[in-house]
Design a protein that fits this description.
Layout (H helix, E strand, L loop, with lengths): L1 E5 L2 H18 L4 E4 L6 H12 L9 E4 L1 E3 L10 H8 L11 E2 L8 H14 L5 E4 L21 E4 L2 H7 L12 E4 L2 H5 L3 E6 L5 H9 L17 E6 L7
Parallel strand pairs: 1-10, 2-3, 2-6, 3-5, 6-9, 9-10
Antiparallel strand pairs: 4-8, 7-8
Helix pairs in contact: 1-2
The chain binds 2-amino-2-deoxy-6-O-phosphono-alpha-D-glucopyranose (GLP).
The site of 2-amino-2-deoxy-6-O-phosphono-alpha-D-glucopyranose has 14 residues, from helix 5.
């Protein structure tokens, strides 16, 4: 794993923006794995700025998001589809039919997960997967003790994850109890992975991810087994190393 230590969240977003822009320039048909949450917001802003300056194009890119809440309509402001449209897609030239988010509103979520997994493979796999990390080390919505062999699947959300994400909803009761997520195996098949971590609340978990045992108890620790991972983290997030 390559670890890039930066001063703060702004510097993290700058660096991540540079790396993703370089990928967009390098590949003819880049397949991006995208993440939601607050951490990648700065990265998406940097990409929008670069696009507006004419430095990059998304015309030939396609994207696959990590996860989506089950039961969420696409136009619900709390859906990850809505987040992606607002934070990135509508500001750049990516054709919307080249963007993919698991279908949280599918009548058969299990079936939708299988199709999603197949679509990723059919696209030739993900060139670079952007990841944030939950406080408990979850990636996507793969909570602790999810088997490393899991592909895209439906998960029950941890109470701690629902509480952490309740800030976006009117109340904790409104936070969905289930989500669809790429599995650890799906994520690990990406050719390259970029993990972004900011803030001291994640410092203890990040230390385990980098220095601890590879264990299903800390999902992001699996990244130690991937041949091409870059972690961009700020000083606060790396303070427990
Ligand atoms: C959610 C998402 C994850 C994300 C995590 C951390 O649970 N499913 O993909 O990494 O939140 O979010 P944040 O970046 O806001 O700390």
């Amino acid at each position: 794993m390559e670890i890039i230590k930066v001063k703060d969240y702004d510097a993290l977003s700058d660096k991540a923006g540079e790396l993703i822009a370089a990928k967009l320039k390098e590949l003819k048909k880049p397949v991006l794995g995208l993440a939601t949450g607050s951490t990648p917001e700065g990265l998406y802003q940097r990409l929008i700025e670069k696009y507006k300056r004419g430095e990059i194009t998304f015309k030939h890119a396609s994207s696959y998001n990590l996860d989506e809440y089950v039961g969420m309509k696409k136009d619900d402001p709390n859906s990850y589809r809505y987040y992606m449209n607002e934070k990135l897609f509508k500001h750049v030239d990516i054709p919307l039919d080249q963007t993919h988010v698991p279908a949280g509103d599918a009548t058969n979520p299990e079936e939708a997960c299988k199709k999603y997994e197949q679509a990723i493979q059919a696209a030739g796999g993900i060139d670079i997967q952007i990841l944030g990390m939950g406080l408990n080390g979850h990636i996507g919505f793969n909570e602790p003790n999810t088997p490393f062999t899991a592909e895209t699947h439906v998960v029950d959300l941890d109470e701690s994850t629902r509480k952490a994400n309740a800030r976006f909803f009117a109340s904790l009761d409104d936070v969905p109890t289930q989500a669809m997520t790429m599995g650890i195996a799906t994520i690990m098949r990406s050719k390259e992975i970029l993990l972004l971590v900011s803030g001291d609340s994640k410092a203890e978990t990040l230390a385990k991810v980098i220095q601890g045992n590879v264990t299903e108890a800390v999902p992001a620790s699996v990244l130690q087994n991937h041949p091409h991972v870059t972690i961009i983290a700020d000083e606060a997030a790396l303070s427990k190393l």
